[in-house]
Structures are given as structure tokens and as C-alpha cells.
Amino acid sequence: MRKILCFFSLFFLLALSLASCKIFDKNIETSIENNNLYDEEKIDIDENVKKIGIVMPTQYLERWNSDGDYLRRNLMSKGYKVFLEYSDNIIDKQVKNIIKLIEEGVDLLIIAPIDGDVLIGPLKMAQEKNIPVISYDRLIRGSDAVSFYVSFDNYTIGQVQAEFIVDYLKLNENTENKKYNIEFFSGPVDDNNSEVFYDGAMSILKTYIDRGVLNIPSGLIKIEDTEVSEWNTAIAMIKMQNIIDEFYKNGKNKLDIAFCANDSIALGVSKAINTDYEGGNEIIITGQDGDEENLKNIIDGKQTMTVYKHLQNEARVTVDLADVILKGDEPSFETIVNAGWDFDCIYDKTEYNNGVKNVPSYLLGVTLIDKENLKKELIDTGYYKIIDNYPVLQ
Q1: Three-state SS at 358
Q2: What is the pLDDT of residues 156-173, one digit of tens each?
Q3: Residue 116 above 70 pLDDT?
Q4: Which of 14, 106, 112, 192 has a beta carbon 3.0–4.6 Å from 51's, enabling a disulfide?
Q5: Which of these, 152, 143, 135, lies nearest to 321 by C-alpha position?
Q6: Residue 242 is part of a domain; what is its CATH number?
Q7: Which residues pair with 288 in a beta bridge?
């Protein structure tokens, strides 16, 4: 019966996501058509205008639609012709999209890879045509054609989540030798961010695991055993349901912490806990991104915290970086100074190695959000507004 219910749950959620993607597909096609004609911004250009290709992974997740649209609109406002492509989380389609944009004669590529290890071939083509490549949010590995990397400090994000748990449970003051049960839900191993985030979290939590303060009843701790492919909510839900069935049914164990790599995973895990977990105790559920549905869950007490990443700031850095490159200047730390950004960003040339080279990186800061500081950090700052008691992005 469990397998049947899981199958229909997955089928239902995937059907909803595909329906959402179809709606977004129509909107994006319209936007791209307007983009190519420059009707939307009414920008006067000549035939020599420089062209930028943007390749996003999927429209299934809220954030990629937001990123793609922001990048497209703001690059257009600077006078560039922009081609925006989505790849439906299909690697072959993303490769074809990149090749198509290269053949289209773009002057710069902005790529958020589905799998950071499989783009060596098309990027070699870009390199041969002297097309700079900005690796967006996720690091493209194995290619010396990557010019720059723009992302958040993912190692720090893992540490922020881990430190929240340590502080929330007062693990450093655990003189009574209390023990807590934790389960891990990592991002896909083909996303470089997953490993960096995981390493950051384990740099803090491993001490407590080794001491037996944190126990993992399922025994799933390695990143390849805890991964949730494609950061998929439905897959996360079923993974959590299966863990509950095997290790937490009938009072066998009490779950204290669900360590979720991001908010889409946290959504699935929290749904499974709500429907299947019978313990009745408070469970710490972590996340990252600050998706609207998760902020709602934080207010409702269904998720404990998230690491907020201001995605428009990441896109803003990328827009300004692309502009600097295409104007023939050399990006550096001075790019941050000259841009006058009102948010934290560091320039790093040594920490992010893609297996071939140290990729010059622009790394943005993050903010821990819980129920106590949500209003101060997101509403009072003007990032979000309140509609029907819940935060909505401005």
C-alpha cells in the first residue's frame, strides 16, 4: 500500500509541476519573441549590437524563472540583445541550447548548468570563438573555458544551517549528554553547490556525530546516499516517507532534525512529516533560498529556518559583470567598488577550482531567516510585502 501511495503522490506532484512548466513555457516564449523584436523595452539598436545567451536549467523551480527574467530584462535595458533558453533539466537539451547560441553568434554566455561535468565539449566551441562564459550559481567543472563564476558562498551556507542547529539545541552546553536524531537530505551530486554546501555543514556537525550527540537512525550520511535528484520536492517527500516508514514508525525512534539542503527539498520533507510522522514533537527543518512557500511555512511553524539568498542581487552582479566584459574591461575586485552595490560581495581567485583552473569568483553574502527575524530582514527592508498575512516578493 505504501508503494502504491508513494507512486500516486509522485505522479500527482509531477503532473502539477509539468502543468506549471507548460504555463511558464508559454510566457517565456512570448517574452523571448518580444525580446528579439525589442518591443518590450522599445530599445533602438543597430545590427552591431552585442548578443548574450542565457541558459537556465529548468522552469520547474520558482527561482530559475525569476533569475532568467531578471537577467534578460536588465541586460536588455543596457542595450544588449538577449536569448533566454530553458532546458527542462535535460542535459542533452542544455548542451543543444548552448551549441545553438554559439552558432547564433552570441558574444557572451551565462550558464547555470544542470550537470557541471558535461559541458566540456560545447564550452570548447565557445572558447574557440573567444566567447566568454559566466558560470551562474553552479560551477561548471572540467573546463578552462569558464571565465568567471557568480554565486553565493555555499560553504558558508552549509555552516550557517549547521550553526543554527548547534545554537538552537545548545549542543555546546549539552552537559546532560542529550542525544538527538537527525536525517540528511542533500542536493544532487552532479551540482557542485551540493558538495560545497555539504562540506560546510559537515565541518561543524561531524564533531557532534562522532561524539554521538547527533545520531542518524537511517545510517544515511554520505552525500551520494542522501541526495535528492534535481532538488525535486516530490522525490524528497517520498525519500522522507520511506525513512519514516522504516525507522520512525510506532515510536521506534523520535526525529529531531531534518537537515534539508534547500527549500524545495524542505517542502517535500515537511509534507511527508505532516502526513506520516506520528511522533508529535517539534522537528527542526532547515532550508535555503527563501522561496515564498517556505517563508509561509516558517510563519506557520512547518519549517524552522532558511538561508535567504537575494537572487536579484546575484543576477545584478552577473548583469554588471557581463557589461564590464563586453565593454572590454577586465573584471576584478575594482568591479565591486565601481558598481557601488549595497550588499555584501567578495571577489575570490583561489577557493573555487573546477578541476582545471581556479575560477575567478564573485560570491554574495547570505542571511539566516527564522520566525523571529523574518519581518525585520525581509519585510522592513522592502524585499517582500505582506499579502493575506504572508510574504510576497516585491
Answers
A1: strand
A2: 999 999 999 999 999 999
A3: yes
A4: 106
A5: 135
A6: 3.40.50.2300
A7: 307
